[in-house]
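User: Teach me something about this protein's shape.
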Amino acid sequence: MTLPNEHLPLPCSLREVVCRTFPHAEPSSDADMLQQERLTTYLRDAVGAAEPLLTIIRQRTAEDGPAQLAAADAATIEWISLAFDCWSHDYPVEAPLRDTLHRLLPLAIAVALAEHSFFTPGAHPLHKLLDRLQHSAVGWQTRLDRAGQMLEQRVRRAVERALAWFEDPGTDFSAITQELEAAAHRDEERAARMVHRLEETEQAAVRTRHARREAAGIINRGLASCELPMAIGEFLKGPWYDSLQLVALRHGTSSQEWREISRITDQLMRSVQPAVGGGDQGGSTLRRLSGELRHWLLSLEHDSAATDDAIGLVEYVHLRMTHGQDLGLTHIRPLAVPGEQDGSGGEDGAAASLETGQWYLLQDEHGELRARLSLQLEEGRHLLFTNAVGLKALDLDRASFIERLRSASARHLPAEDSFSLSLSHAAGIDDHHKLRALIEPGYRPPEPEQPPELELPPEAEQPAAAEQPHEPAQQPVFEHPTEPECPPEAEHRITPDPEPPTEAAPTPDPFGDREAPAKNTTETANADPPEPATTSETRPPPTDTLPEFAPPPAPARPWAEAEAEAEAGAEAEVESNLPSLELELVGDEPGQEYQATAPARERRSSAPAPVPAPAPQPATSERPRRTPPGPEMDVPMGAWLGFHDGETPIMAKLAVYDPRRDNYIFVNRRGIALRELSRGELLALIDDGLVDILETRCYFRDEVQRAREHRDD
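Assistant: First, the predicted structure itself:
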């Protein structure tokens, strides 16, 4: 129905239109006509009947005596009956009140037969009463229980007062309408006060959502511009995300505190990026960044243990980066923030004209929900719906609500001049062109234009074919390639295959150029590209352990093991050139530190550089392992080791060595034991490249013992 209610009341009567639209045969001139009083009695008795009124009237006339219904009266009955059907379908009301309103159908027919002004939609007082009844009942539901009883009783009383017309034709429909409007005005004022209180309550939630979007925006912009280790991504999307929201709530997004924490967030992301031009992050810079992170980690300010764990993960990543290890940079998924996209693009129909006060039929966990759009918060991004009594019923972001409208899971419920428009629609006047044609006999409504594309394609294809005569010659080349062209295409597809491993091999190297990557490139040029999780398995074994045959393929291991093993060869080449690499973050004398960790260095640097793999030999039952070093192992007390043999990497300090049991006990920052390993187990982990000696500190007792030994010598 496209006829706007601004045309109501209509400027003309629809009596002739109704007779033309619903034609009936005129009775013969000598037939007895059904008198209006008798017809009104039949209509009064048919109040609440489920059968069609024409059927009931004809049955009653057959029982009471022969009488013919005039053609105009039959057309009027059929017109108003169809109007009530359109009214119930286009402007639905929930079942109990819908049946109550339907009881007014016989009254509307009786009034139309008695008063010719009824044929002008929007002009008769009964039209306005029916419009007001539907407007009052559009938001009513049985689920309102006691809150909706007053409205239900008000509608029922108004219907009964209107039906009194059958007994008293002087019933004032306008007075009933005015009483309903006054009661509706009081209800709207009460609902407006409740909505105002609801808006004040929602302001806190609005600020929270705003802080969440701003915090997620800072993190998501960084995640989109760079790759990060998984540990840094978890830190940013976990406690640091919560801390950003707290700063936004406490100080606002235009404060100096917000700019400071935004700067720290960007600095953290840049601190783990590959160095440009051979540069590197200084130890003092990383320590200062760690302190700033600890200071602004407000979400964990009351839990020092959780703060230590969170900052420890960041420091562990920085230590690995300082040692030149691969951090496993990857793309981190951005944070999903509800309502981040307002869905304003491409809105059409009811979605583009969301107005406060409109009623909608939606679905929730309890079934159908009639709710009114009461608030549009955050520049229309967040929508708040209330029920008929002003209580909060539903809140949705704009994008979700528009999606519901497009998928027909939400429907707009119009409630203005509903019955008057239904009368026009039932008579065939459903747009302004037909109304103008009714008023101006010489006006003809414009015919709908046919899209020209429906007829042009057969004609348009011929000029296109004439302008491009070379296309038919090119099509066979793609659909049926000739035989000589296949080998060059196959060579073209095979040639670039060795390049992906070559491009992936030269990862950012903080130690300068190496010869190993070039050697690997030549080895893999004639072989299939290895799987990402097993790239380290193609490395040949050390020549000092298995010189006569190649090791069998090892089963796939977690990415941490494969990554550590792939770095073992590179570590051996550069470790002898940088003797104090592990001591730069400590700040003590490099010479003493290097002497304390020299045995461990020799053991880790014993792995030779990669050599071309010999001819394949029969596989053995287990993977070859170097013979564990014996008494020469000397890990000083207080040394910090990084273990990445489990799902989560951990840092632990060597606290106790038990010579009787030959066991090492490792603790965390608070002195709590994390793990206990025997010498053989620790050597096996070191041999597999699953342990990194990150930091060593010599105790005073060890220094005194070394001084005595030097004096004796």
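Now, about its shape. The beta strands are 359-364, 367-377, 382-386, 392-397, 411-413, 640-643, 650-658, 663-667, 673-678, 691-695. The CA atoms of residues 283 and 585 lie 6 Å apart. If you'd like, I can walk through any region in more detail.
User: That's plenty for now, thanks!
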